[in-house]
């Protein structure tokens, strides 16, 4: 059985909710990613910040990204999947919540991230078509 750990991009890194958006953008550039899990003071994931969030939630409003924090922009309950979860569980989680990136957790620690690109490399054409149809409609 193919698991989340098999298809994830390993070594995902989180950023504290107290870190500024300009620092988050710099980390995204350095890691060549478009999203970062955000962690609270206890190290628990409290959301995901995307490059689009920074542009739409901060820059487009004329706010200073060196004065806003990642915690200022994250909303809602973060979604994640256990590293041992099967591919069907991964797809169901992403479909149900219409998300494009899914953090992977093992022993309560962030170990990776699954993106659409990861799915494209590991799914059949029919699985990809079904996923895209459900997330983008």
Characteristics of this structure?
137 residues; alpha/beta; CBS-domain; three-stranded mixed sheet; 7 strands
Could you characterize the architecture of this molecule?
The chain is an alpha/beta fold. It has one domain (about 5-135): CBS-domain (Roll). It has helices at about 5, 20-30, 50-55, 70-75, 85-95, 115-120, 125-135; strands spanning about 10, 15, 35-40, 45-50, 80, 100-105, 110-115. A 4-stranded mixed sheet has the order 1-7-6-5. It has a 3-stranded mixed sheet with strand order 2-3-4. Strand 6 and strand 7 (about 110-115) form a beta hairpin. The protein is globular and about 45 Å long.
What is the H-and-E element order?
Answer: HEEHEEHHEHEEHH
> What's the overall geometry?
globular
Strand order of the largest sheet: 1-7-6-5
CATH A-level architecture: Roll
* Uncertain parts: none
- Multimeric organization: single chain
- Report the sheet-strand fraction: 15-25%
Most strands sheet = 4 strands, mixed
Number of strands: 7
What does the radius of gyration come to? 15 Å
Query: Helix segment count?
Result: 7
Termini, distance in Å?
Answer: 29 Å
CATH topology: CBS-domain
Structural class designation: alpha/beta
- Return the average pLDDT rounded to an integer: 91
Helical proportion? Answer: 25-40%
Overall tally of structural domains: 1
Query: What's the CATH class label?
Result: Alpha Beta
The CATH superfamily title = CBS-domain
């Amino acid at each position: 059985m193919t698991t989340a750990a098999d298809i994830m991009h390993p070594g995902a890194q989180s950023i504290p909710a107290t870190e500024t958006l300009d620092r988050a953008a710099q980390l995204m550039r350095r890691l060549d990613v478009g999203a970062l899990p955000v962690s609270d003071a206890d190290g628990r994931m409290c959301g995901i910040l995307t490059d689009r969030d920074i542009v739409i939630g901060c820059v487009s409003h004329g706010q200073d990204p060196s004065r806003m924090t990642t915690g200022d922009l994250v909303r809602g309950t973060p979604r994640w999947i256990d590293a041992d979860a099967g591919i069907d569980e991964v797809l169901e989680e992403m479909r149900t919540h219409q998300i494009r990136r899914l953090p992977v957790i093992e022993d309560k620690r962030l170990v990776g991230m699954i993106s659409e690109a990861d799915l494209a490399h590991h799914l059949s054409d029919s699985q990809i078509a079904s996923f895209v149809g459900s997330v983008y409609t």
